[in-house]
């Protein structure tokens, strides 16, 4: 089989039979092929994710984790799988401290310390067992073939390697795969990963036993405990604490989704340990009492920025792994609490960050408690895919290995990068003297910002969306929802809209296209601060169900080189 041809990317597709939207054309095509062969949205989501592990390996893969949200058409229910990584049982809250002081973030990032138990393979297995029509072997085979035959390198793939060249060069297993001859592969060349193809084959043949209770797992543990660093490298790479028993213990549990209502729509997403559902939901609830559709764009953006500023103040104080602390999920999503926060918004003047959190268990109008902290910067390099099928099922799935390139270490002979997800924990308490819900502990899941979301109207799917982007996932998803629901944009245009991400800091993370808007000067006059170093924020995808039964698949027009949307049977709008 020859290399995959360079497929063109299309940001929007409309038609019947199902839809797939992802950041990569090869992955989207594989998802569509599974639908055409009788697979459902779950089968297509797993096949697309497996392919993204090949073509977008610096953002996701079998070495990482994620959150899977599924609308089941036959029951009308929303299900979620928590595929978040867990800490080794040997971890304590001082995992990232030495002599009582947090280690530098960069040294946590590229280390064995930051590797959590991979949850992505177990997520695939669980989803297929519960709701799929195909076997793990069936849906992984196209990605295995893609890894073996190769795909055409694009600018994004090459740039991501170049961005990490110093880290990657420190590990012979990573260097040999991604820096052949000491350089990233050239755009237009064919990239093959036979080690990954063989790993996929072994995972499928053993139904994951090789990873969670066998040879692949042993090799992961050895890589974590004895990082295979080039002796000539000056990089400081700490060993980790992962054990084979940690892999054997891992489960990807079903959780109740987060739920709130907005403009008469039901918004379902991921509950803790992700902060995505609660923080998007709280921001929307804060906006509920303001008619955004009638406002000027400046006013809309001002209220949007203030809503996420406040929601992040509460996220940072209250959200963590619910198995380890009493997370007030229901209270964070209550309209009463949101209203007590919304009254802090001044339409003429931005709040001063960091705003202190509120008390969701005892909300008082305009009251705050304690001190505020800004959200962490976090990784920008996650991936999100969205699928739908002819039966009306919908999947919204966000998955990651955390930083671009994870912890930088390819498991020798296995072709995949390990995650550095445990850096999502706070290295030390954020609020002095106050219990921190997001410190490391044995077997704990770090707080996430992933927000795979399904929006329901009258009990049926309206649209689904999600995004990569670390903590900016939350603001991106909230912006896409308000753009589609309040501002009357198409899903494609809501995804394409210039972004700013206010996470309770003095300056919002911002894209240059946002700064170029005429409204930005008026926002600055109201006290809104924007970073002087513009970034690219998110690479969202979505699907939408039209009243006549057609699907719209939507992806990025420009970000990450554009996304890839497709349907099974194209039709005109």
TrEMBL record:
Protein's name according to its UniProt entry: Glutathione hydrolase proenzyme
Pathway: Sulfur metabolism; glutathione metabolism
Hydrolase found in the keyword field: yes
Pfam families tied to this protein: G_glu_transpept
Lineage, opening ranks: Bacteria, Bacillati, Actinomycetota, Actinomycetes, Pseudonocardiales
Catalytic activity of the protein: glutathione + H2O = L-cysteinylglycine + L-glutamate; an S-substituted glutathione + H2O = an S-substituted L-cysteinylglycine + L-glutamate; an N-terminal (5-L-glutamyl)-[peptide] + an alpha-amino acid = 5-L-glutamyl amino acid + an N-terminal L-alpha-aminoacyl-[peptide]
Free-text description of this protein's post-translational modifications in UniProt: Cleaved by autocatalysis into a large and a small subunit.
Origin superkingdom: Bacteria
Subunit structure: This enzyme consists of two polypeptide chains, which are synthesized in precursor form from a single polypeptide.
Gene Ontology molecular function: leukotriene C4 gamma-glutamyl transferase activity
EC numbers on record: 2.3.2.2, 3.4.19.13
Keywords assigned: Acyltransferase, Glutathione biosynthesis, Hydrolase, Transferase, Zymogen
Record family assignment: Belongs to the gamma-glutamyltransferase family.
